[in-house]
Amino acid sequence: MGLLYSGDTEYLNGTVPYILEGLKLAEPVAVAVPGRNLTLIEAALGDSAADVELIDMTEAGRNPGRILPGVLLAFADNRPGPVRIVGEPVWAGRSAVEYPACAQHEALINFAFGDRELRMLCPYDRTRLKGDVLADVGRTHPTLSGADGDRPSGEYAPDAVVEKYNLPLPEPKAAEAFRFDIARLSAVRNFARERAEESGLAPDRVEDLVLAVAELSANSVLHGSGHGVVRVWRDEDHVLCEVVDEGTLSDPLAGRRPAPPGQIGGRGLVLVNQVADLVRQYLRPGSTVTRIYFRP
């Protein structure tokens, strides 16, 4: 359910009774919202806050691709029966480059949980978020809530949102390309490490970038066309790496859903989402473009 709110009072009126109702029903409750809003809710809950899992979404969900496997499913899958979550993945501080991944995340939630007993409330600040973002709320949530109560969304169309933001990514001004195949997997890691170090990425983040490149290039070889191209460059805010291959990634939840226990493989994209600050993909038949972002 999407909650459209304006100001702190509407925010608390929309979230706190929802949380307390869950606690009264003995449902496990998690609240994953940006830090300031988390503080507001914690204070309003008083002693009841101790019974709620409180998560700062600006940290745990900085990369929208991390929210499903690392926050929502991580909470729900460890608890039997119905669970209740307040999740706020979109806030006014989100950048334009992050938002498409946020919208796709919101569209995929219902598919990710399937028939699981889940109640989820997603707050959106209608005074601070842009009109196109607010328009997407009705497309990604079957029910909308606000000061006037709840109503069904006549615009609900999550598949259309996933496709709407499946967009070609802007070309970098200058980025050296390295072509790889199975014989050059070690070389592609060395290439990524050298370019990341030259770009000024912190040493621990260099290791994260190299790990992500290793996973993506291995996926290209094993599950794609057997070869691919990697590029590394820097813009004003990030060190970026892009892996392109001729494979077709047909599962929109790839990388957003943990592999079942005992399954061999299927963890590479989840790991990439875990270590990167942002992951964007452009998917079409015969081509998969994965771009990963790291803050210097």
TrEMBL record:
The keyword Transferase applies. It holds the Pfam family MEDS. One of its GO terms (molecular function) is protein serine/threonine kinase activity. It comes from the Bacteria. Residues 3-142 form the MEDS domain. Keywords: Kinase, Serine/threonine-protein kinase, Transferase. Residues 180-292 form the Histidine kinase/HSP90-like ATPase domain. Transmembrane segments: none annotated. The keyword Kinase applies. NCBIfam families: RsbA_anti_sig (NF041045). This is Anti-sigma regulatory factor.
